[in-house]
Amino acid sequence: MRSMARRGSYAKGVAKREEILSTALDVVARHGYRRTSVRELADAVGLSPAGLLHYFSSKEELFAEILRKRDQLDLQRYAADGAPVTTTLVDVVRHNADVPGLVQLHAQVLVEACDPEHPSHADFRDRYARLRHALADALKADAASDAAATASATVDAEVAAALLVAAADGLQTQWRLDPSIDMAAHLEVLVDLLAAHVARLDPDPDERLSP
Question: Model's pTM, two decimal places?
Fold first, then answer.
């Protein structure tokens, strides 16, 4: 009976944590990081600030988890079966124009997470590494299958992937300063430019020996 009670309590805790994150996504998207307090988030889910932080070790963890939840939902929404990672990146950046508060939150937490002592430092480092690798693989696959690719296409895919990630973050910063900038359209131009110059996948060793 005690085991069942513990499982029930754990399940309720997980459900409440998900409710908090889902509600917080909406609140932060509308109000932004600087205008969203722990008290406001707690009120939105019927808890006290102390009760809210019972589900998270700190305010920093709470906001990092909000971003992780955002990423999860973006992948579900835009990473359709077979969709290139480059297309997904552009679609997510386009969607970000509708949720300025979450863009602000990401920018703020990212700056703080550059400190190796920050609790989200490893998460952000690994997130960017996964994104770069996924983009590089997509660019190399496109280069390998593109019959129009030229023999002079020598841009390393890992370098191109890092440039795409940097451009996406930089465009979002510029957009926060000047909302007239079309982030997705600018990023699509860079995707096309880089895709045309990314080096093909190395051919199979047997193919290199073929006449």
Answer: 0.80
Q: DSSP state, 47?
A: -
What is the per-residue DSSP string for 119-171? TTHHHHHHHHHHHHHHHHHHHHHHHHH-TT--TT--B-HHHHHHHHHHHHHHH
Nearest partner of 140 among 208, 202, 189, 205, judged by Cα: 202
**Tokens 């550059």 correspond to what residue?**
114
In degrees and rounded to multiples of 5, residue 155 shows phi and psi of -70, 125
Q: How far apart are CA 133 and CA 160, in angstroms?
A: 10
What residues pair up with 155 in beta bridges, in sequence order? 198
pLDDT class of 37 with cuts at 50, 70, 90: confident
Whether the CB-CB separation of 52 and 20 falls below 8 Å is answered with: yes
In this predicted model, what pLDDT tens digit does every residue of 104-128 receive, in sequence order? 999 999 999 999 998 889 999 999 9
| 3-state helix/strand/coil string of 24-47 | HHHHHHHHCCCCCCHHHHHHHCCC
